[in-house]
Design goal:
FAD/NAD(P)-binding domain; 7-stranded mixed beta sheet; 23 strands; 459 residues
Length: 459
């Protein structure tokens, strides 16, 4: 029986995992599910919000030549007992170059069974399905393939424009993170986020309409600092304000802080440190003590959280909605489910919890793919060796900061600054974009045949 691997999320982590698995396991049936048909370079969204045109490649193009099937649609629910994912608006957007052997069916290679049938339920399952009720009552379908379908033949796995239920044997949860827009009153209604391409475009348009107005960026972490500097550099007539409950750039080393503060002053950014925002209103922000500050455009960069899908499925999550995992990227309670990237909570061997970052997501993706391939082919599981080296921060056009770190991600008082750091930051972003179509370094040339009856180990 063909082993079905479903990857949720087509960001840095999900796309990398799917492509690497496609190379390592050519006989598996691999499906990548993503809500949008285009890839989002999140590490460049602050530039897009400031008005720069950014490339947004189609995921189907990035998957060309692989055996990975792309389904564009919103993952709406996970039934961990039946091992199914409900996808709303599912559309198949590519033709995988290789197709794995598929179970026999009656309708020309395509088998369609209603959600929750005995064919798709796991043995002994008696719990209530966590797939949304709408999927159960609107004719949602679970679709498979015929083993007689020739390799490379095109067969529609997901009916176009439907609500589909996709079964899996192994699930990779890589849905990333979103702005935490619900913690403070008024944020969802009156502030702009920066975690998606549509949000960045909306912010860009709002700033363009208020080119000489006040733009308030709430949150002076890496995202907020980069965004404030980019906006101030590209919109010199605007009054850019950076509000932070803690010290702006407070996580940096002393040398890093000095350079960041100098950049804020050079760009004319008004920094309000030690001030919390308690509410956001139309045209204003309310800070500690009830003071009101005018704001034509308010941007929320005050924290990120994982999507609620894992918690809704009954999986254990931390306070940010992330799934705790072991050093093989596997969830602690469900051995058939892996979590990577911003949606995973992992403590490294150096004692630090990996932060939400592209720099962590891609190595986690490489490792998850290698582990899954090893387990399904009966090989030993490779160890996970990863450490942060630096943080590359853009501080507006022509300026940057590279902050070097210890293995546990704590700061050392060593930095690279100015135009050289900006060029390095640009190189990192360029390198990520150029290597994204590939499966990552150290991918073995040998492809690994799976065990005759592949099973997800429980130990």
């Amino acid at each position: 029986m063909t082993h079905r691997i479903v990857v949720l999320g087509g960001g840095y982590a999900g796309l990398t995992t799917a492509k690497r698995l496609g190379r390592l396991l050519p006989d598996a049936h691999i499906t990548l599910v993503n809500e949008r048909e285009r890839f989002v370079h999140r590490i460049l969204l602050h530039q897009a919000a400031a008005g720069r045109d950014l490339d947004a490649p189609r995921l189907a193009d990035l998957l060309r030549g692989t055996n990975v099937e792309l389904v564009v649609g919103r993952a709406a629910g996970i039934d961990v007992e039946r091992r199914q994912v409900a996808v709303v608006g599912a559309e198949r957007r590519n033709s995988p170059s290789r197709a794995a052997p598929r179970p026999p069916t009656k309708q020309g290679g395509v088998s369609v069974t209603t959600e929750g049938s005995a064919d798709t339920a796991s043995p002994g399952s008696s719990s209530r399905s966590r797939v949304p009720q709408g999927a159960e009552t609107t004719g949602a379908t679970s679709i498979g393939y015929d083993s007689g379908t020739p390799r490379g033949a095109s067969s529609p796995r997901v009916p176009q424009g439907s609500e589909a239920v996709i079964g899996y044997d192994t699930l990779v949860y890589a849905l990333g993170s979103v702005g935490d827009m619900t913690r403070v009153p008024g944020v969802a209604e009156h502030a702009y986020g920066v975690s998606g391409r549509d949000e960045a475009a909306a912010l860009r348009d709002a700033v363009a309409r208020n080119d000489s107005g006040t733009v308030t960026v709430v949150g002076a972490g890496l995202t907020g600092a980069e965004l404030a500097c980019e906006l101030a550099g590209r919109h010199p007539r605007a009054r850019v304000r950076l509000v932070s409950r803690g010290e702006a750039g407070g996580w940096l080393s002393p040398r890093g802080k000095r350079h960041a503060r100098a950049a804020f002053r050079r760009l004319g950014i008004e920094v309000m440190s030690g001030v919390g925002v308690t509410a956001v209103k139309d045209g204003a922000v309310v800070v500690d003590g009830g003071s009101v500050a005018d704001s034509d455009v308010t941007v929320w960069a005050g924290g990120f959280t994982a999507p609620p899908l894992a918690a809704e499925a009954g999986l254990d999550v931390d306070g940010l909605g992330r799934i705790p995992i072991d050093d093989t990227m596997r969830t602690l309670a469900r051995p058939e489910i892996y979590a990577i990237g911003d949606s995973a909570a992992f403590t490294s061997r150096h004692g630090n919890e990996l932060r939400m970052a592209c720099a962590a997501a891609i190595p986690m993706a490489w490792h998850a793919a290698d582990v899954i391939a090893a387990r399904l082919s009966g090989r030993s599981v490779p160890p996970f060796h990863f450490r942060f080296v630096q943080q590359a921060i853009g501080l507006g056009p022509g300026d940057g900061l590279v902050q070097y770190v210890r293995p546990d991600d704590s700061m050392v008082n060593a930095v690279l600054t100015g135009r050289t750091a900006a060029r390095y930051k640009d190189f990192v972003c360029w390198f990520v974009a150029k290597t994204l179509p590939h499966t990552g370094p150290y991918t073995p040339r040998r492809r690994h045949p799976m065990l005759p009856r592949p099973q997800v180990p429980v130990g």
